[in-house]
Design goal:
The chain has 364 residues and is an alpha/beta fold. The protein has helices spanning 14-23, 41-48, 60-63, 80-89, 104-117, 131-141, 176-179, 181-191, 307-323, 332-351, and strands at 5-10, 29-35, 55-57, 70-73, 93-96, 121-123, 148-152, 197-205, 226-233, 237-244, 255-259, 263-266, 285-291, 294-300, 355-356. Bound molecules: nicotinamide-adenine-dinucleotide (NAD).
Length: 364
Amino acid sequence: MDKKLRIGIIGCGGIAHAHMRAYLEIPEVEIVGGADIVPGKARKFLDEFGLTDAKAFDCATDLLKCELDAVSVCTYNSQHAVCAVEALEAGCHVLLEKPMCLNMKEAQAIYEAEKKSGKILTIGFQPRYGANFQQVKEIISSGTLGDVYYVQTGGGRRRGIPGGTFIEKDTAGVGALADIGCYALDFAMNSIGYPKPLTVSAVAYDHFGKNPKYYGDAERFSVDDFSAAFVRLEGGITLDFRMSWAMHMDTTGDFLFLGKDAGLKVKQPNLELWGGAWDGTVGQITLYHDMCGKPTSTVIPTGTEIKSNLFYSKVKAFTDAVINGGTAPIPTSQILYNQAIIDGIIRSVACGHEVETDLAFLDK
Ligand SMILES: NC(=O)c1ccc[n+]([C@@H]2O[C@H](COP(=O)([O-])OP(=O)(O)OC[C@H]3O[C@@H](n4cnc5c(N)ncnc54)[C@H](O)[C@@H]3O)[C@@H](O)[C@H]2O)c1
């Protein structure tokens, strides 16, 4: 490649550092600049990495005038859609942090901007790049389980409400259900081939976040800290979703995949994290099957995952796709289904009954 890939970073907070570390390991990349609405924050961020020649802006619009090839959107959730759409309209490929956005109106706007631009939009689900994560999909795709009819998502934190911009409606929009819930949904849905979600019935609570006994910043807390949902997927598959930032329990359970021929149980590897978080890495995988007519279980060998490598892999997959004219490593066709479940959970919680997913715009 003659010319380096010109990259900008929109939103220069916590996770932008992980994006930057990964970009700086990729020789084909040049960091052109960064933008953050907090005055001086982009400059400080770039200087931290010794990028004193890179340009700093207080507004993404100005950064997007720098003839960039691609951007990482690392803003808090409520700014994902507006920044992603603006970047696509400016002709940039976009690596958008998770969750995609807050609702289906925003998701549709991103989807349409992506289609119109002909650029790549991918999302920051780095657990996808884990070998054990991929192995679960391989086992299920191989047909070992037969038709899968029930999936349970698992994990959840015992005490792990984050702080900063994660706990207010204005910035985060939603709490645990989308923050770490989108990962759990991606693992469950990706493993079974992302069938279309049809209906969602959900509940959400804030018993810990709003209680100063458990959370020091309770007055500021305005999102959910626990959610559960019953989701009907195309093909007669049920998805049982649970996600927590805080609860009086170590886990909401393991990931379960029930098939007509066999079942798969996937444990969290790091129960000591956050008092029981599913952090995206995959622990023990056990196959439940019959052998000679007898119920049998077989532990599938797994490897050790290194989280920082997952992050590098996600950024590298994005830059490789841009450089080689490839397609989005994690395509909108899947992300929209993930977002439609989150959107369904939010609407079902608000109205108190089951709702249909809002994906009709895809049929137009
Ligand atoms: N993939 C992961 O492992 C991972 C981990 C943590 C966070 N995240 C995601 O990354 C996003 C950011 O999280 P964070 O921890 O970095 O939050 P943060 O609050 O530390 O950083 C967000 C930054 O975006 C800036 N910002 C907001 N709106 C902007 C706009 N319109 N233009 C320019 N800058 C803007 C804010 O001023 C802030 O500095 C969230 O969506 C979160 O879900 C992903």
